[in-house]
Design a protein that fits this description.
- This protein is of the alpha/beta class.
- It is built from seven helices and nine strands; from the N terminus they run αββαβαβαββααβαββ.
- It has one domain: Vaccinia Virus protein VP39 (Rossmann fold), CATH 3.40.50.
- Helix 2 runs parallel beside helix 3.
């Protein structure tokens, strides 16, 4: 069993993230890009509307909420355990219920029509099922597979997400998207195919291409 599950929680940017429902364990490389996203959010004037999609434990949106009291955060995940875990972590971190909305949805299916965000923060499942033999045994044995494997070439969920996400962004709204370093070329093609105005790729703390900032 992963140590994080034995401990029952992890620290994520100063937030206590409970893992009692065995959702995806937050990774340090995710923490790295969320820190950068929070800096960008602080540059937006007034009330900030943020979506944490593929939310899992809720760590991404909770960190954004705690670091910026002007942020209103929606959380989306498809899993029953994940929805329960997000609600537990919102309580633990004393996030005002008026600032958040937790939505059980397959990507944007249950998001109210006309909803738009200043930023969408996305850590989708992106492991290629063909590479299952490369995945650590403890990950396969204990962590939820629907949060790990992203369909064909690991890009199926990313492709579906980027096809629709721009419809839920304000003008000049942005996406932070995590992916596997081997996917950078394919992710670039998907971004261009969906007519986003600009994008930039960044390396994580381990010098691996890990995330993109994409502008509507």
């Amino acid at each position: 069993m992963p140590q994080e599950y034995k401990d029952g929680s992890v620290d994520f940017l100063g937030c206590k993230i409970d893992l009692s429902k065995r959702v995806l364990i937050p990774r340090p490389e995710t923490e790295f890009w969320v820190r950068q996203a929070i800096v960008d959010l602080q540059k937006i004037a007034g009330e900030i509307h943020v979506l944490d999609i593929f939310s899992g434990s809720g760590c991404v949106g909770i960190a954004a909420a705690k670091k910026n009291p002007r942020a209103m955060i929606d959380f989306i995940d498809i899993g029953k355990n994940e929805i329960g875990q997000i609600k537990i972590n919102l309580e633990i971190n004393v996030i005002d219920k008026k600032r958040v909305c937790v939505i059980k949805s397959n990507t944007f299916e249950n998001v109210p029509h006309g909803t738009v965000y200043d930023a969408i923060l996305a850590n989708p499942p992106y492991i290629d099922p063909e590479r299952i033999n490369e995945v650590q045994g403890s990950v396969l044995d204990y962590e939820p597979r629907q949060a790990l494997f992203g369909g064909t070439r690991g890009l199926e969920v990313i492709e579906k997400f980027l096809k629709t996400a721009r419809n839920f962004l304000k003008p000049l709204g942005f996406i932070y998207l995590e992916f596997d370093p081997s996917q950078i070329g394919e992710v670039e093609k998907i971004i261009k195919k969906n007519n986003y105005s600009s994008f930039e790729f960044f390396k994580d703390q381990f010098e691996q291409w890990r995330f993109a900032k994409i502008i509507k």
